Amino acid sequence: MLQNPFLRGLLVMAIFTYGLSSCSSDNSFKDGQIIIRNIQQLPIDTVAQSIPFTQVADSISYVKLAPTQLPVGKIEKIKYADNKLLVLDTRVSRALFVFSDSGNFLYKIDGEKGQSITDFCIDSSHTNLYVYYANKHQISAYSFKSGELINTIRIQGFFHNVDILGDDVFVLSRDGITKFENEPKKYNQNRICMFDKSGTYLKGYMNSPIFPYINYGKMYTVANNAGTAISIVRLYSDTIYAITKNSMEAKFNLSLSRKTDLREFYHSQKAQEANQFLQSGNFSGIWGPFFQTSQNIVFYYTYQSRVYLYWKSLTRGSQFTISYFTNNIDGIPDMGSIKQINQYEAIAVLLPLDILNANRATIMAKSPTPNHKLASLAEGLSDYSNPVIAIYHLKSAPKQILANK
């Protein structure tokens, strides 16, 4: 032991200085920190070409949902998987309805004891359907084929959205208006929390001190690429994040004419400032579907009456090709009515009956209904006693883009 106070002080100062130098030279990210070093900023004001919306989809099919015992009211989410349409009603029936892709009713899952279903997801093998009840702090597992209950999983905390990485890791997210009361301290008020299938907390990202709820905005999962176990999370900061079982990384940011390069924050070792900057972006656009296969990345973004299409081939090593089409082309409602995207294959769009032809085989090329009314209908402000869903199959890049490559 050093008895001399002066020598002890020198030793403490040396250890402290060494600790600071060690931390400042380490550019690696610990658990809970978001990787931002490789973020790609994409322009939105440099557009190569305008394309008709008919070039975006390989094919379009229209499905009129069969009547059920309970009315399908406020449709919050639509998912299309394994030739099944999953429709979540959060207001009227408070139930999850499952239909065949021809519109036949298969089964439904009710809210438990008056509790509305908050969200749902399907595992990568399409074996189990997971239904999340925020007020019950519970995930219920059902057979995706039959709808039979398998088991329940206790999830402490209050969240808004659920997704699953592969078949064994749940990713739950929440937006700015969040209840943190009575939840474990280890959650650290993270906006994104990961759990195993027993409900055990694994790790989290975006904690409240760095992302103040007052500036946060809404966050939810846009797409889940089950093949490579990557979930994409959308924020009002116009940034797409990729979440794997081991990390979370900011991948793409729409610059909206910004001049700042986000990577500068990383190189200057200001990760916290970078994350704060990502949360202070323009809240002026609407994200459409995002999907990724082994060959393509495609996503849509609505901004100032245009729907922008970003497409990149992963096999050809190309840059993003940017195109756009205007809202309501070919009779499709405003892109804000898009409720969900299948796992990188199709968009499911809710259509009001009054813009369909009587035989519902085709949609009117020019809708007589103004955009604002379509948007209102799509938000559930009208009668959905006989909802119709359009499925836009997106199995390849738009033909016009491919022709230019």
UniProtKB/TrEMBL annotation:
<dbReference type="Pfam" id="PF17170">
    <property type="entry name" value="DUF5128"/>
</dbReference>
<protein>
    <submittedName>
        <fullName>6-bladed beta-propeller</fullName>
    </submittedName>
</protein>
<dbReference type="InterPro" id="IPR011042">
    <property type="entry name" value="6-blade_b-propeller_TolB-like"/>
</dbReference>
